[in-house]
Amino acid sequence: MKTNLLPALKLTFFSFVVCAILYPFAVWAIAQWSPNQGKGLLIESNGRVFYKNIGQSFTEEGYFQSRPSAVDYNAAGSGGSNLAGSNREYLQTVQQRIQTFQQANPTVSRAELPVELVTASGSGLDPDLTVQGARVQVARIAKVRALEAEKVQELVTSHIEKPLLGIFGPEKVNVLMLNLALDKLSAERSKADVN
């Protein structure tokens, strides 16, 4: 027993030092070189502060909707639904999301509806949509905000982020940045109408 106990205690102590002290310190040190010292990418608009890299809820009709979140967009509790794709409760939730989306966007057929608009991401905090996920919402937003659909489409196109280094990941659109630009476009339109 003594021959096994001492090596086990040494391994436990070594693992504790590496996993609980050295690794967190290394991550913290690397974060100090990143923008905003690892505290997230902050955006200030109209006196409010938003996190650019954390998904947020946009439920009003005049905004691009984010990907659904299984954790109600709570960054302190990141996580998915943990339900299988064949789970009855999960399938009912997805079906309900499809119906809700199609009621708000009657011009979008079920076949055109991107999967990310009705399923939550693994973290529940995905801040981005695919380009198609943003484009299928253009007609609704243009109608609600009384904007030309072409202008809203141009706004989506101007906010497309290319894959990292041109090869990693798909093209995407940050929903927060798109909605802030949409507010700006609407404000400019209202100002022009007044003048």
- Specify the biggest β-sheet: 3 strands, antiparallel
Strand content: 5-15%
3D shape: extended
Number of domains: 2
Number of DSSP E strands: 5
Secondary-structure content class: mainly alpha
Number of helices: 6
What is the helix fraction of residues, given as a range?
Answer: 40-55%
Across the major sheet, the strand order is 3-5-4
**What do the pLDDT scores average to?**
85
Assembly classification: single chain
Termini, distance in Å? 88 Å
Are there runs of 5+ residues with pLDDT below 50, and where? none
Subcellular location: Cell membrane
Subunit structure: The system is composed of three essential subunits: KdpA, KdpB and KdpC.
GO molecular function: ATP binding; P-type potassium transmembrane transporter activity
Membrane topology: Single-pass membrane protein
